[in-house]
Write a structure and sequence with these properties.
rod-shaped, four-stranded antiparallel sheet, alpha+beta, 263 residues
Length: 263
């Protein structure tokens, strides 16, 4: 039985990996950094100097807080809902006060932001603004006007409700007088019922607690906003990154120019 001839695969001479000679080792990177150390130092110093200049010229801002304690209908129930009060402050009181504030100080816009918040699980409305100490009088005036407007509206609400309750009390007392004069058989029961109603209405009128302004534009102890130390720290990190990037960009440009000359 004849055997088939065995065939062998032809040997092919593959070219060597073309990019092996162009690989950069850690030693090459270190050499490049040492070679361009002056460029690194220059970029690093310029970046840090720019960050330091920005940090020291950055004005210090403080947070100014005005606190208003919401009026109460009784010991457990606020006179108005907190959400409704916040909507009134943002949509009614602030625009009205700002329209009077801007022409008085010849301003086109308020130079700080007004934030109205309700701390969680509290009967407080806070107005906060972050600005420099130079603007403190403006903050105090604007915060105070908003808080006074809020208090005046709630005081008027309490006064209106008290008047309505007083009218009901007067009506109940008038009914007692009528029952007494009519000498009805169940006059005693009717008088007792009207008296209980009067006592209940009087208790409601006495349970109102007016709102109060606890503080107007109270300045925070520590500056707020971007810290100078943070700016300097970011400047150091950014300076180191830019210095390394500048070295490799410079090296790339140098090799590119040399390659173009050879071609």
């Amino acid at each position: 039985m004849s055997q088939l001839p065995q065939t062998t695969a032809p040997h092919t001479n593959l070219p060597p990996y073309p990019y092996r000679d162009n690989e950069i080792s850690l030693v090459d990177i270190a050499k490049i950094l040492i070679k361009r150390r002056r460029l690194m130092a220059l970029v690093f110093v310029l970046t840090v100097a720019a960050a330091a200049t920005f940090a020291f010229t950055l004005p210090q801002k403080y947070e100014y807080t005005t606190i208003y304690t919401i009026a109460q209908a009784d010991a457990e129930k606020p006179l108005e809902s907190v959400a409704g009060l916040q909507t009134k402050v943002n949509s009614l009181y602030i625009p009205a006060v700002v329209r009077e504030f801007l022409p008085r100080h010849q301003l086109e816009a308020v130079p700080f932001v007004l934030n109205v918040r309700n701390p969680r699980d509290s009967g407080l409305i806070t107005i906060t603004s972050q600005t420099t100490e130079d603007a403190e009088p403006l903050v105090r005036e604007l915060h105070g006007a908003i808080a006074e407007r809020l208090k005046a509206e709630q005081d008027a609400n309490i006064h209106h409700r008290t008047e309505l309750l007083q009218q009901q009390i007067d009506a109940a007392r008038a009914q007692i007088d009528l029952v007494k004069n009519a000498e009805l058989a169940k006059a005693g029961e009717l008088i007792a019922s009207y008296t209980a109603t009067i006592n209940n209405l009087q208790a409601q009128a006495n349970s109102f607690q007016t709102g109060s302004i606890s503080a107007i534009a109270n300045q925070s102890l520590q500056p707020k906003g971007t810290s100078k130390k943070l700016v300097l720290a970011l400047g150091l990190v950014l300076g180191a990154m830019l210095a390394v990037m500048a070295v490799f960009v410079r090296e790339f440009i140098g090799q590119l120019c040399a390659s173009l000359k050879e071609d």
